[in-house]
Amino acid sequence: MGATASLSTLYPYRRVPDQDADDARRHPVVIVGAGPVGLALGVDLVKRGVPVLILDKHDGVGEGSRAICFARHTLEIAHRLGCGQRMADKGVVWETGRVFHGEHPVFEFDLSPEGGYRMPAFVNLQQPYVEAYLVDAIREAAASGLPIEIRGCNRVTRLHAGADHVAINVQTPDGDYQIEADWLIACDGARSATRDLLGLGFEGRVFEDNFLIADVKMNAGFPAERRFWFEPVFGQGAQSALLHKQPDDIWRLDFQLGWDIDRQAELAEERVRERVDGMLGENVNYSLEWTSIYTFQCRRMEQFRQDRVLFAGDAAHQVSPFGARGANSGIQDADNLGWKLQLVIAALAPESLLDSYASERMLAADENIQASTRSTDFLTPKTTTSKMFRNAVLTLAKDHAFARPLVNSGRLSLPTSYDPASEKGANLSCIGVDALRAAGAPASTRPGAPCPDVQLSTTEFLIDRLGRDFTLLAIDTQVPDTFARHGISVSGLTLETRQDDSDTIRKRYLGTARSAVYLIRPDRHIVARWQAFDENAVTLALEIAIKGHCTTDTLSHEDTRSPTPEPDSGISARMPLVREPNLADGDGFYDELLAVHDGLGDEESQALNARLVLILSNHIGDRDVIREALKVAASTARQNPS
Ligand SMILES: Cc1cc2nc3c(=O)[nH]c(=O)nc-3n(C[C@H](O)[C@H](O)[C@H](O)COP(=O)(O)OP(=O)(O)OC[C@H]3O[C@@H](n4cnc5c(N)ncnc54)[C@H](O)[C@@H]3O)c2cc1C
Fold first, then answer.
1. Ligand 1: which of 66, 320, 376, 412 to mutate, most ligand atoms within 8 Å of CB?
2. What is the rounded CA–CA span in Å between residue 98 and residue 105?
3. Which atom from ligand 1 is nearest to the alpha carbon of 318?
């Protein structure tokens, strides 16, 4: 149906010499799948000098309307791959959103209140554009002599994973042929054939809901902002609805239909138009470009590395579209894997570095799945009580700022910090101690975090100065221009806060520290930071970064631990729940508590209680105290439910 739905041929089938070879030819890296993740990884690897072969069972952009929201971090990665600016220029930039409950506005939000970034917080851009731009980047690389190739209509149908290679059977219009790969990267999507062929599981939660997508073309005066409705008054009973502007006058409308539906009836044009008219108003002229109904699951593979096979993108993990975490996190997988695979192939790092890929990206997948599951549970409360609390949050959010962060219509994709203090920290490729925190450096640039951009001049930003390699970033102190250890060269970059009128460098990288030195990985995550350059400390940090075995006791005794939240320590000894009488006028309080319910029905009273819990919990603020209060209340409820 229409423009966004058309299948466009980007890499038509061509017969290649491998098909006529007597023996299976060996390739250093074979990527299965030319979706956004496989393509991004292909570009990254070849720009790092690694020969890449990409196989896809189709010959271009897939049919259907999928990802539209691309986050700043993804745009920054794409910038390094050569197509970030194109994405930002073509995409519809949006930085504000509005949330409604029924017909009432609840609140507005601004994603990027502070400037100093080359890339916007989000753009809306149809996934086919992203794929086409990445294919262009591959064509440019190939035209300049770099060893990269995409083979369309090449379906992987059999695999054998050996000790030092993977044997691959490829099906084409001219019949089957065989090749071998030193490393095979499975980017073949949610129904990954690689996963199935290797007999690997994909466990997780299936959400029992259906979402109708209608991409419509119209000239409408709505602003380019995200609009989300809980329980909209329009939409023929839809439980939630979403509106997003895309390029080319296309708008994405999304309606939550519930589980028990007649899919065919819901996809009938007349029925779709009823819903669309309800949202847009009767007098708006539009054409329907694409309609579909999707359901989703939240799940991930138990392990992202199986010896010489690595999984990335939807093949490895799946989330709901709310929060735009699918393609965004998949492209971040590619960003994490590219430099590591190159170092391993070049024998500059041990294979254990690839285990850090798996650990770090499994950590990210867990974070994304948790965020996505929580959003879905907020959108679709499963019980009367959860709906009561959800609506209490929405009601309070209209007038009370404290309740707004609790409104969850999709927590938008953010890059994961690979916090070494987390329980999976042992396999991370960054350092477990933070030598700068005690000096007052911001927690947001702690080891493991992605480094934020900074505007350096009218035309130049920090991300422009960070290349494909490790960087030593010095602020108000000195580092060598280049520093080489273990065969790896690190580029020095010095910035001075006195030349930064906006004070962004200080805010993002120094805090109250006098000076700082950051060791930054090729994927722009921070390995370690110190107050000044120390050759031994940097050497050790680099060694940890390339071995992928983080330890938490490797730096000097002055170091302090990363300030990530400590694991749940149970009840706080600092401020326990008050168990002794504490109300000055107990009887008076009791009267007031009852009086406020006067004249209310049971449901209204329960809704009031839900709001009261939220207001008082926010006032208390201390999670341990609230947790203890919940525990006490819950145990009493079980003994005496009435
Ligand atoms: C309605 C909807 C809205 C979404 N919105 C967003 C959003 O706004 N933002 C966001 O970040 N994400 C969003 N997503 C998720 C996003 O579309 C996916 O996460 C993304 O496409 C995953 O990319 P991928 O490269 O891992 O896999 P895919 O895009 O699925 O690509 C897999 C590729 O592998 C190929 N392939 C499969 N099997 C074989 C085989 N045997 N041999 C060779 N090739 C094979 C396929 O042809 C395909 O080209 C949305 C998804 C949906 C459904």
1. 66
2. 7
3. 19
Within this chain, domains 8-91+118-202+300-375 and 425-561 share the same CATH topology = no
Query: What does the alpha-carbon distance between residue 605 and residue 594 come to, in Å, rounded to a whole number?
Result: 10
Mean pLDDT score, 280-284: 87
Q: Which of 13, 56, 299, 300 to mutate to test the pocket of ligand 1 (most atoms within 8 A of CB)?
A: 56
- Domain locations in the chain as residue ranges: 8-91+118-202+300-375, 425-561, 574-642
* Phi/psi at 480 (5° precision): -60, 155
CA dihedral 469, 124, 368, 109 (to 10 degrees): 110
Shortest-distance Cα residue to atom 31 of ligand 1: 35
**Residue closest by Cα to atom 15 of ligand 1:** 326
| Residue nearest (by alpha carbon) to ligand 1 atom 35 | 33
Mean pLDDT calculated for residue range 529-550: 91
Structural domain 425-561, CATH architecture: 3-Layer(aba) Sandwich (3.40)
Q: How far is the CA of 251 from the centre of ligand 1 (A)?
A: 20
Per-residue CA distances from 376 to 96, 300, 344, 363, 634 (Å): 21, 17, 39, 20, 25
CA-based nearest residue to 274, from 228, 238, 231, 225: 238
86-137: per-residue pLDDT in tens? Answer: 999 999 998 889 999 998 999 998 887 788 999 999 999 999 999 999 999 9
CA-nearest residue for atom 11, ligand 1, is 327
Indicate if ligand 1 lies below 6 Å from the C-beta of 341. no
Per residue in 133-157, pLDDT (tens digit) is 999 999 999 999 999 999 999 999 9
Residue 496's pLDDT band, with cuts at 50, 70 and 90, is very high
Q: Tell me, what's the pLDDT at 63? A: 66
Q: Report the CATH fold assignment for 8-91+118-202+300-375.
A: FAD/NAD(P)-binding domain (3.50.50)
Rounded mean pLDDT, 28-53: 98
Q: Is the CB of 146 under 6 A from ligand 1?
A: no
Count of other CB atoms within 10 angstroms of residue 170? 24
Report whether residue 152 contacts ligand 1, using a CB cutoff of 6 Å.
Answer: no
